[in-house]
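fyi for ur records
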Amino acid sequence: MSGNTFGRLFRVTTAGESHGPGNVCIVDGCPAGIELSEADLQPDLDRRRPGQSKLTTQRDEPDSPKILSGVFEGKTTGTPIAIVIPNRDQRSADYSDIKDKYRPGHADYTFDAKFGFRDYRGGGRSSARETNVRVAAGAIAKKILRQWHGITVVGYVKQVGDVIADIPEPEKITLEQVEASPVRCPDPRKAAAMIELIERVRKEQDSIGGVGEVVATNVPPGWGEPVFDKLKADLGKAMFSLPAVLGVEYGIGFGCATMRGTQNNDVFESVKDGDKQHVATTTNRHGGMLGGISSGMPIVMRCAVKPTSSLSQPQRTVTRDGEPTTISTKGRHDPCLLPRFVPMAEAMMALVLVDHGLLHRSRQSPR
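which gave:
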């Protein structure tokens, strides 16, 4: 197993490096008949791409995708969809000084330990540049979820440093609210404080971490498996597969550690929706999943994202031979990863949900 393929029925395989010719993904298992073009992929790629504001790296990449297969006359054929996104603005010379040095916080040493060889240009395969094709695949998943189930997936920045947004009803946040600020925080007052903090950190040649929250609404109850393939387990794996993620929680998360059962449990109720009755809970501390299976309530997840490891100020390290030295990274880097992390988290949640939706559909008894 190479670890470059994700999913079971809706399978995504990626390839590419930060400073190679480009990144590629193969989406296998996409149902036939879905209207699809590059224009469907571009909006989320624009949200992820570098150089979109002064808060992000100034690497200038248009991230223009090209669909090479799996689409005919504007619709998916059911065969593998190949997508390529070229790299246009590599500056590999910026990384010549780190060829034989290990950058603190990066995968340089672990790649050497695993392969005995590494692409040191911008981190190679371990770079977040690889996530652009994941976002492209996620855009396809989002379209299927929206058309087939009315599911929406929206992420936003919940926290930067010690600045925490006030989001009392996560399921009501809209994409328009998120995109109203370059920091992608839907709380305008806290968004301004986040921007100020990021700017201050950038001027100090440092970086700052935070928390991204991602919410899926209208997920039907019953998706997921009760033991090893729990929906929460697959979502956790998906989020942890993203670069810089050090922690994942859903619902009340670690807040449950200080609660009693009477405080933590969500009470069930019968809700009338038009002429239909359905079961819901009065609160959503369980984050939309019980026993690893979706409950029908909004799925709410949060990811702790570490500060950018690449810094222009000198840091102590060692060479590949173990000799003490110092290092400073000359490349263009985000002072805070959170604004660009949002579409990545949305993509990974959508990929998991569409996969589980197809699995659930394949097991339904004909009526």
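Residues 338-362 form the longest helix (25 residues). thats all i got for now
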